[in-house]
Amino acid sequence: MSEAEKWPVWKTLTRRKWVAVILIVAILIMFFPPGLPIPTDPITVDYYNYVEKLPKGSPVFWGYYLDYIASYTGARDANRARLYHLLLREAKIVMLAYGPVAPAAFEDMVKYIDIESYGYQYGRDYVIMPFLAGEEAAIASAVDLFATYTSDNRGNPLSSLPLLNTVKGIQDAKLGVMESNVVTVPHMMVRQWGVKYGVPLVGSSYAEMSIYYQRYVFGCPGNAALYELLVDMPGRELIKADMTNISGGIAIAMIFIGLIHSIRNKVPQKPKLPARRSE
After folding, report:
1. How many CA atoms does the CB half-sphere of 262 hold within 13 Å?
2. Alpha carbons 62 and 83: distance in angstroms, whole number
3. 3-state secondary structure of 272
4. CATH number of the structural domain spanning residue 126
């Protein structure tokens, strides 16, 4: 094949070569996500902005209702990004478990992000409480942790946890984070935390929280990939978004190239006249 016949270059790309190119691109994105532009989601930006303006060292209560693990695994990287943002604000975090699987989810969350590598110390900067049954009654009891619990999720007496010497209950929180796989539970947190004690809240979905928005609830985690991008912590959500964008771009490019090639082949070509022989 002459050099002229090798151009345009796509004429030389076989199906196997295209697959190899796409595979290489996918592997590179997995390890080095470029963080391509993502459509802005205002409610996700509201969540980010509200956490961003928290004074450093603010007490934060994170309430989690979780009764089956699949709900957590699907949001594992999203939770990691939101927890990372709280670490950047040096928040003092009290993690409250209102579903039987929530304590294990919190324990996994802090290991996944390696929270102590950010200078966090258990008992001083964060505490994980055990599962407390009762839904709204349990959520309401966050007003007095010592009257509700005798020990934390790791079996430590509450009196041995320095954080709880100054943070006695939800009324001391500067922010409440709501998370649940049951749609009714965030409404309970709004009633018991936001309405009763004026604690500003973020979390849950906008579809559930729209009636409280900008009154008790000031941000919802709508787009996990966008939040990873905002806090500059690329994870699986951003990788998936980048791979979708790039694979879609490659597909569109291949369609466009094929269309041009098809049009060019349909254009009538002038017949080549035989070269004149010299006399």
Report:
1. 6
2. 10
3. coil
4. 3.40.50
User: Is the omega angle on the peptide bond into residue 234 within 30 degrees of 0, that is, cis?
Assistant: no
Sheet containing 59-65, strands listed edge to edge, beginning at the edge strand earlier in sequence: 126-131, 92-97, 59-65, 175-180, 201-203
Return the structure tokens found at 240: 């998936």
143 shares a domain with 207: yes
Residue carrying the six token digits 């964060």 = 126
Residue 258's φ and ψ, nearest 5 degrees, are: -65, -35
Nearby residues of 134 by Cβ (< 8 Å), 6 or more positions away:
141
Residues 122 and 253 in one domain: no
Question: How far apart, in Å, are the Cα atoms of 236 and each of 87, 106, 110, 154, 176?
Answer: 20, 19, 17, 29, 26
Angstrom distance (rounded) from CA 255 to CA 261: 10
Residue 269 backbone dihedrals phi, psi, to 5 degrees: -100, 140
CB contact at 8 A, 44 and 229: no
Domain range enclosing 139: 42-230
Q: Please indicate, yes or no, whether the overall pTM of this predicted structure exceeds 0.90.
A: no
The DSSP code for 267 is S
- Residue with the two structure tokens 């500003």: 200
Q: What tens digit of pLDDT does each residue of 208-261 get?
A: 999 999 999 999 998 888 898 899 887 777 767 666 666 666 667 667 766 776
